[in-house]
Amino acid sequence: MSYNILIVDDSGSMRKVLLKTLRLSGFDLGECYEASNGRQALEVLEGKWVDLILSDVHMPEMDGIEFLRSLRQIEFFKNTPVVFVTTEANEDRLRTLMELGAGGYVRKPFRPEEIRALLSQVMGEPHGGLAGESSEGCDF
Amino acid sequence: MVVLQERVLRDVISEVLETMFFTDVDFEECDTGSLPFEYGSETLLVNPRGCIVLNLRMGEKFARMITANFLGLDELKADTVGEEELVDSLKEFSNMVAGGCHAHVNDADWKLGIPRAWRIGADTTDSTSGLCGICFEFLGEPAGTAFLRYLPGSGGSAQGPESN
């Protein structure tokens, strides 16, 4: 089974790093979408299905908390797993994310195995085999 | 009140560079204002009473190398890294260092701002001149500097003056 994913981060470099991490973690990737803030992410999601969203918290225009809050108001995305990869250290804000239904969070800087462990917990074990960087799908 | 110390800054920079940029640096005493670096970045930590400004300055060679490492490119091709990718990666470096400092502050009042980075031009005002900071070296060569400043009464917004 391949996963359609959306990566939301205002840093294009970080989006590339996260995509690479997903590939190296053995997740079979289908369509990959990207957005540089929450507002753009909501636009990208119009008319699309994604299995997983990776998002930053600190972003201009619409941050990760507002994005998650807005996303959960859309019936179609009420249960879509959203994992945050963030520098956020404020316990209150992290608690808010979890209360809004985040699947979990990983603090930056992160090691690839931290992302993999959290995603395995949220999505189940990857089926694409480990450490084999797939060249299929998701080329941004 | 400056709640962060040099030791914290060193530890955070080391952790970020090792974990995400696959680079080890050494820290040295130096006159931070006298080193001619090509790239700068800034991230604010803000609370209602003031803000802490984190400034990083880096040499181009070092900046290119860590960008290549970050993006998983061949280090030998660091010269081909585009300016946009370079600045974007330095923003992310600054963001992660400020985030690490934020974690050490351990105070819910502080909010992390959005980082910015830029190429230092001849006409750029160097706002870090004359301040205390730390220097880091890579393979014995000056690689960059880091400064923390506390500005009382500057709180209220977690975005830098030129944040995007």
Mind sketching the topology for me?
The complex is a heterodimer of chains A (140) and B (164).
Chain A: E1 3-8, H1 12-24, E2 29-35, H2 38-45, E3 52-55, H3 64-72, E4 82-86, H4 91-99, E5 104-107, H5 112-123
Parallel strand pairs in A: 1-2, 1-3, 3-4, 4-5
Helix pairs in contact in A: 2-3
Chain B: H1 6-20, E1 26-28, E2 39-47, E3 50-58, H2 60-71, H3 83-105, E4 111-112, E5 116-119, E6 133-138, E7 141-152
Antiparallel strand pairs in B: 1-6, 2-3, 2-4, 2-5, 3-7, 6-7
Describe what this molecule looks like in 3D.
The complex is a heterodimer of chains A (140) and B (164). Chain A is 36% helix and 19% strand. Chain A has 140 residues and is of the alpha/beta class. In chain A, helix 2 packs parallel to helix 3. The two termini of chain A are 21 Å apart. By secondary structure, chain B is an alpha+beta fold. Chain B has three helices and seven strands. In chain B, helix 2 crosses helix 3. The longest helix of chain B is centred in the middle third of the chain and has 23 residues. The C terminus of chain B is likely disordered. Chains A and B meet through helix 1 of A and helix 1, helix 2, helix 3 and strand 4 of B.
Kindly summarize this structure in a few lines.
The complex is a heterodimer of chains A (140) and B (164). In chain A, 36% of the residues lie in helices and 19% in strands.
Order of helices and strands of chain B, N to C?
HEEEHHEEEE
The rounded distance between the terminal residues' Cα atoms of chain A is: 21 Å
- SSE pattern of chain A: EHEHEHEHEH
Strand content of chain B: 25-35%
